Amino acid sequence: MLNNKRFFVMLKIAYSPIYTHPLPEGHRFPMEKYDLLPEQLLYEGTVDTENFFEPNVLDDKWIVNTHDSKYFEKLRNLELSRSEIRKTGFPLSQQLINREIHIMHGSVQASLFALKFGVAMNIAGGTHHAFTDRGEGFCLLNDIAISANYLLDNKLAERILVVDLDVHQGNGTAQIFENQSNVFTFSMHGASNYPMHKEQSDLDIGLPDKIGDKAYLQILIKNLEPLIDNEQPDFIIYQCGVDVLDSDKLGRLGMSILGCKERDRIVLESAKRHQIPIMCCMGGGYSPKISDIIEAHANTYRLAQEIYF
């Protein structure tokens, strides 16, 4: 039996069937997680159907406000070169472009819900490898950057902190905001993992292979609170990829599912304590067992309900 009181103020979550755009058989990107995660959250009673909203197509002006217009035109017209397509990791198709544009709207809309309710989520997103003029690493457009610029340009925020705890450096986000003083980019990532050439975030912390829960969480605690105190952000965008898990095929770190959950607790409780709205986008997760990916992602939503509602 659901406790209706929990949903008086609602956790809003972006999800669309278009997120599960099919890829060729054998492709390593786990698209099924985008269907399984909402199913799990509904099944266990963490959320209700009313918690979900379906994103639409984001207006082009908000995309070219962040991305180079020539790049976006090539992307939309399926005119990327073979080399450009290979760097994205995705086979290019109109369905894929449509999916990406919906994801961008999901993160923008989730940011608006976060302003209203304190926290909101996008089941997709976290596309931090997309640069101003190119895509890389399963990322074609950068929802973190688009959402941040949307908030700033509409005067809904003045100072944004990007907390990127995916195992891979947020290189695209770092490049987009390298000369923008009202967005502070913080990336804590595997030092020897992709991308081999790192961009310069405002704060980069490279982690050694196989670092465990205790050491990881100590580093996060040591840096996050002083960062919030010093930068005084009025909005946080949190990239909470679960490819930090020891089981992850692409991660190379040593964290447990419980350690990953504690990581999310630290970030969410810090945002709540400082009364800073936070939008969470899911990022990566490539463990061989899909159940590990779903459990780690689901913990983020469970904690949001526990901490905020």
TrEMBL record:
GO terms for molecular function: histone deacetylase activity; hydrolase activity. Residues 27-297 form the Histone deacetylase domain. Belongs to the histone deacetylase family. Pfam families: Hist_deacetyl. Gene3D superfamilies: Histone deacetylase domain. One of its GO terms (biological process) is epigenetic regulation of gene expression. This is Acetoin utilization deacetylase AcuC. SUPFAM superfamilies: Arginase/deacetylase (SSF52768). The keyword Hydrolase applies. Keywords: Hydrolase. InterPro entries: HDAC_classIV, HDACs, His_deacetylse_dom, His_deacetylse_dom_sf, Ureohydrolase_dom_sf. The keyword Methyltransferase does not apply.
